[in-house]
Each structure stands twice: as C-alpha cells, then as structure tokens.
Amino acid sequence: MPPPSLVQVALHTPSHSGVGDLLSYASERPLPPGTLVRVPLGTREVLGVVWDAEDATGELPEGASLRAIAGVLEGVAPLDLPWRRLVAFAARYYQRGLGEVALAALPPQLRDLRPEQLARRLRRPAKATDESANAIQNIALTAEQESARARIAAEKGPFLLFGSTGSGKTEVYLRCVQEMLEADATAQALVMVPEINLTPQLEERFVSRFAPRFGAGAVVSLHSGMTNPQRLKSWLAAHSGAARIVLGTRMAVFASLPGLRLIVVDEEHDPSYKQQEGARYSARDLAIWRGREQGAKVLLGSATPSLESWHASRPPPPKTRWAAATCACTCPAALALAPWPACAGWT
Ligand SMILES: Nc1ncnc2c1ncn2[C@@H]1O[C@H](COP(=O)(O)OP(=O)(O)OP(=O)(O)O)[C@@H](O)[C@H]1O
C-alpha cells in the first residue's frame, strides 16, 4: 500500500487560535490543488480547499503522524488556479486569512453538506432546458452604442462606459455578452449590480434575450437574498460551466467561473460594491484585478462614474503638477466610452 500523501488545506480557523490557515493533513491519494475536502479541526469537521503548497514534499516525513482528511467532495471539480490566485490576492491585499476569504467565497451549503449529501444533490437530474438555439433578434444600436461596442470588441480594456440614465448602457452590455458567448462555446460572463433588488429586472432582461439562444439554464443569479439551496445550485452551474452568464451582487466577484471572458460592473460608482465587514474588499476593484489575471475584458458602466474610475480613464496628465481648468459648461456626450489605462500598482 503506498504511503499516505501530505496535503495542505486552506481552512477558516479562528484568528485568535494562531494556528494559521493552511494546515497539513494526510490523504490516501494525492489530491490536486483546489479540491474540496472535509477535514477534522479540533472536535469539528469542516470544509477546506486543498491549496498549492510550495514546500509540500507530497509524502509524509518519517515518523510523523497527521490527521487524515475525512472525505473529498466528489463530483465537484477542483477550483482552478485563477480562482485560487484571486482569493490569495484578496486575502493578502485586504489583510485577512486565506482560509477565511476562500471559505466565505463558497456557498454556505457546500460547508454544511456532507460528501454523500452533496453526491445525492449532484445526482439529481437537471431540469430539461429548451436548447432551441434560436437566433437573437437584436435591435439596431445607436451610433454611440455601436462605437462603444466596436471599441470594446477591438481593444483590451478595462473600459468605462459613461452614459446618463436610459442612454442605452445595458443594451451595450447585452451585445458585448452576446458576442463573447457566440464566439466561444465555453465562454462565461459575469454581470454585477450593486443591489439585490436590481437583479430580478436585469435577470428578466438577460433571460428573455439569451434563454432562447443558449437555453433556460444559461443565466443564473448569485446574491445573498437567495436561499442556500438556490445559491448552491447557481454556484455549481457557474463552476461547471453550464451557466454562461452569472448575474450577481458584490459576492459574485468570487464565483468560480472557469470560462470567464467578460466582467460587467454596472453602476460602478455605487458604494455597495464595498464589503463592510470581514474582508473589506471592493468588488469593483477585484473585478478589474480578476479580469486582468484571467484574461477577461472588464466593462464598468455608470451615469455618475466614481472619481477614481473617471481619473483612471482620462489621458495621462501633462507633466505640470496642476492642470489648468476652464469653467465652460461642457456637458458630456450621451454615451462615451473611455478605455482605462493599465492599472499600475495592482500586483
Ligand atoms: N439602440 C436602441 N434602440 C431602441 N431602444 C433602445 C436602444 N438602446 C436601448 N434602448 C431602450 O432604451 C431603454 C433604456 O436603455 P438601457 O436600459 O440600455 O439604458 P441604461 O443606460 O442601461 O439605463 P440605466 O442607467 O437606467 O441602467 C430600454 O428600454 C432599452 O430597451
């Protein structure tokens, strides 16, 4: 019988315990990073994520004795490297525990269900979807919308789409999402809104546009107003790639999306994108970081952009310390798109 392997597992351990959030366990077989496992912690059994450990030898040292993992969440593919890098960056940047951020990013029911309960849940047949692949009936874009769409398609971004209320920003998002999904059968899009109560109307618009083309299960929501079983279902659909579009609030920035190609942050100026407890992250800023890391385009939209996004989308200032200001009232165009220069300082 081969010797047990040593795996490093990210756990949400109490910060006062000082045990750190990467703990070693023994496993009967080597487990790839990102695998979801249940492990003993004190007298409890908790969910953990097998993590990349640079100093792990893969084998137990002579004479060492480690507690064994209790079980693997079979049927759930390991969380991929871009997701683990996002979590590691967020934990470092916002100075929280790695395990705390990793576990908070997973649906609560994943933590509560035992492996066999989850296996039963995964065996339930998914509802049949009408994959009729009907062509989408697009409305003609205005000149401003078309110019924004073409620029987003051609350039790398991130982009700031600045347009007053009702100027047609959502129509641009819809068209960009459509192009991205039609070009690549595995592509996924993440569309974020600041408030839970904005998701039903956006969901209705996305479902009516995309369900006939990509099937009823192609659009899912992720926000804290959903029940735990609903959140788990949406999360699994996103993680498996079955969901092509995820609509959600700030927490959705941590969704596992292996095919992520486009992130839209609507009302990007809204303070609700800032988490106010635990890891105090800014979902908009993490979206920009994630997009760059995962090679996904990022599109921020607002009628009243935040000062930082507005500044980041301006051409670099001249060498003088202060730019001269004029007071002529020049109202912005109805819809303007500004590519965001490289985000220096985000490492
Ligand atoms: N090119 C177009 N042709 C006809 N109708 C359009 C066009 N673009 C958008 N509309 C319609 O105009 C209305 C407002 O558009 P949209 O919701 O995209 O604007 P918005 O800038 O996202 O608004 P908000 O700031 O309120 O989110 C919608 O009913 C939409 O269907």
From TrEMBL:
Keywords: ATP-binding, DNA replication, DNA-binding, Helicase, Hydrolase, Isomerase, Metal-binding, Nucleotide-binding, Primosome, Zinc. The keyword Isomerase applies. Gene3D superfamilies: P-loop containing nucleotide triphosphate hydrolases, PriA, 3(prime) DNA-binding domain. GO terms for biological process: DNA recombination; DNA replication initiation; DNA replication, synthesis of primer; double-strand break repair. It is an enzyme of class 5 (isomerase). InterPro entries: DEAD/DEAH_box_helicase_dom (IPR011545), Helicase_ATP-bd (IPR014001), P-loop_NTPase (IPR027417), PriA_3primeBD (IPR041222), PriA_3primeBD_sf (IPR042115). It catalyses: ATP + H2O = ADP + phosphate + H(+). PROSITE patterns: HELICASE_ATP_BIND_1. Residues 150-312 form the Helicase ATP-binding domain. GO terms for molecular function: 3'-5' DNA helicase activity; ATP binding; DNA binding; hydrolase activity; metal ion binding. One of its GO terms (cellular component) is primosome complex. Its EC number is 5.6.2.4. PANTHER family: PRIMOSOMAL PROTEIN N. This is DNA 3'-5' helicase. It comes from Acidovorax delafieldii 2AN.
